[in-house]
Amino acid sequence: MNWVENISTWLWGPPLIILLLVTGIYLTFLLGFFQFRYPLYIFQQTFGSVFKKPKGKGTVTPLQALTSALSATVGAANIVGVPAAIMFGGPGAIFWMWVIALIGMSIKFSECVLAVRYREKNAEGEYVGGPMYYMTKGLNMKWLGVWFAFALMIELIPSIMVQGNAVSSAVYETFNINPLYTGIATAILVGLVVLGGIKRIGRVTEVVVPFMALIYVGAALIILFMNLNLVPDVLSLIFSYAFQPMAALGGFAGAAVAETIRWGFARGLYSNEAGLGTAPIAHAAATTDHPVRQGLWAIIGIVVDTLVICSASAFVILSSGVWTGENAMNNPSGLTSAAFAQYFGQAGSILVTVSLIFFVVSTIVVIIFFGSKQAEFLFGLKAGELIKYVYLIAIVFGATGGARALWQFLDIALAAILIPNVIAILLLSKEVKRLKTEFFTSDLYYRKDIREKRDKKAS
């Protein structure tokens, strides 16, 4: 199996990092650096409009679409991926994680805009969309849409098994419960949600995702306020070692600048999944009056996922000093738990475990929905329902260790999804630009929002 690991390591090294970096920079220029020009407006139209009735047509609210998309991205990468980036790339890797998040916003915005632009209604009257639809309708390349849909549908089986294994391992480590029982309980819990369709998934995720993110980030903020004097030191570590190699320090083995950039970019992309084509499937169901308005919610997804949650993990790990501990390199994935335990004792370790369980279970819920939409696109509505049961069985197999031989194929399978999606985004980038220009210059959207806000202030 060495060849699989070698191909995977090579693919997720320079080739895919360069592809995503170049795509992100190109789209940022093409769209006029809009993510940097309109930050206040983006926040007003997303979190600022949570309690307002959404405009336009759709199946779920924009917030439900965002929390569904976030459920798929907020997970093990935020808790386990961040310490791995620090241990193998040094503290400077966090800087490059932020850079790829800012550039990746243009990719995620573009794919979500296209998903809403080319969405359609299924036999149950629900709005459905995503890469397979914009490849088929926007590019007239049904074969590419079929490739994407089939690759994602199959890739999700080992992916769900790995997630099931993460839950059962975390529960076994903390509470000593048999992995089989955890697997069955997880499958039943997930089944109750996913068999209810996107509306039930939306209702569950809009409660669970903000709740679990607030608890995890809230605990990190308490640590931040307990250690305000360490903030300049942590920021100094991140910024100074983003551009220079770092020597070995305690259990940290040192890192060259190239490794720092590679690990920052790779973990950042793993975390926010810009370009992977999964988030657009959730955003396509949103109630909106224009594709660009929903694209703004996709940008907020990266802010929450990478700039807030990953940064919270990074601060706790760097301020606690656990990354320089004697055996830190032997178990990077356990560092977040060790850091929280240092501040809160056993309660800190339990907090990380419970957060991980919530993050991973909500991830499983949403990626099963993604998989069912691929089966529906390929084979019809009944196949979409049937494959949900295949995925639920995969949770149990994964929980008992059935995924260990399959996890190496995951990265290759992800590349088989990412590459066609990025090609499609680039080929349709002029349509994204047209929609973005229409939204920001038309009197029906941006200008109307600004005028209404001005009139409200005047009155």
Automatic annotation (TrEMBL):
The record, for Pfam families, names: Na_Ala_symp (PF01235)
> What organism does the record attribute this protein to?
Metabacillus lacus
Sequence intervals crossing the membrane? 12-34, 65-88, 94-118, 139-160, 180-198, 207-226, 238-258, 296-323, 343-369, 389-406, 412-429
Any one Gene Ontology cellular component term annotated for this protein: plasma membrane
Keywords, A to Z, come to:
Cell membrane, Membrane, Symport, Transmembrane, Transmembrane helix, Transport
> Which NCBIfam families does the UniProt entry name for this protein?
agcS (TIGR00835)
Bilayer disposition of the protein: Multi-pass membrane protein
Known InterPro entries for this protein? Na/Ala_symport
- Cellular localisation: Cell membrane
Q: Which residues form a coiled coil?
A: none
Q: What is this protein called?
A: Amino acid carrier protein
User: From which lineage does this chain's organism come?
Assistant: Bacteria, Bacillati, Bacillota, Bacilli, Bacillales
Q: State if Transmembrane is listed as a keyword.
A: yes
